[in-house]
What we know:
Strand content: 25-35%
Largest sheet: 6 strands, mixed
Shape: globular
Number of strands: 9
Strand order of the largest sheet: 5-6-7-3-8-9
Number of helices: 9
Order of helices and strands: EEEHEHEHHHEHEHEEHH
Radius of gyration: 19 Å
Amino acid sequence: MIQVKNVTKKFTKWNEKKQKEEFYADENISFEAHDGEIVGILGPNGAGKSTLLRMIAGILEPTEGIVLFDNKSYKEDEIGIKMELAYLSGNTKLYDTLTTYELLNMCCQIYKMPKEDIEKRIKEISQKLQLDSFLYQKIGDLSTGQTQRVNIARCFIHNPKYYVFDEATTGLDIISSQIILDFIKKERNKGKTILYSTHYMEEAENICDRVIMIHHGHILLTGTPEEIKKETKTTNLRDAFFALIGGSEDEK
């Protein structure tokens, strides 16, 4: 289980008058994600999703609050938690001079997988994510969809317990997207804890057990897709979001 408790992230920026200004990317965020559950973090660009997920993944440190993984914090066991965690952002870069196989082999070694298990694991992941046709091609020669599948494989290769996905299917074709979504669902069914951020509301409605709608760094509403639609008297999550913020930003 992942627990996010009163997490806040404050940044400082310079305004046009060259004066320092403080702003909150996320403020007082709290929620839980349970084993065997996909929790969607939904909102438009600039809502605070990526900052929140980077704090959960241990890339950024919260200004206030704490993130717990089965009641352990990063301060207590940072290496142990990160060995059990996979993080993917929409702009994660890969070594484009390596082949898919070489990258996955390297990741297996980083996560200290037994040598006798590496070949079997690479073969298993390659089949499930349909990488076989480009397993020995250089990553720099792959299409966007193929590269993102390699990125997903990198996350799955060490069989982690916790997944943090930030816009995993952005810009992908329908086939690549469906391969990734199907694999994520299978991981959920194995009891993994999955956080899934997206601005594709229809995709979230299809894959998420619960969703957290976030806007300007604050949680608007949490619940199952059906609960949120019922609460907002709407028929889909896109309309539910606009109902919560009182219309589109352009209308304000």
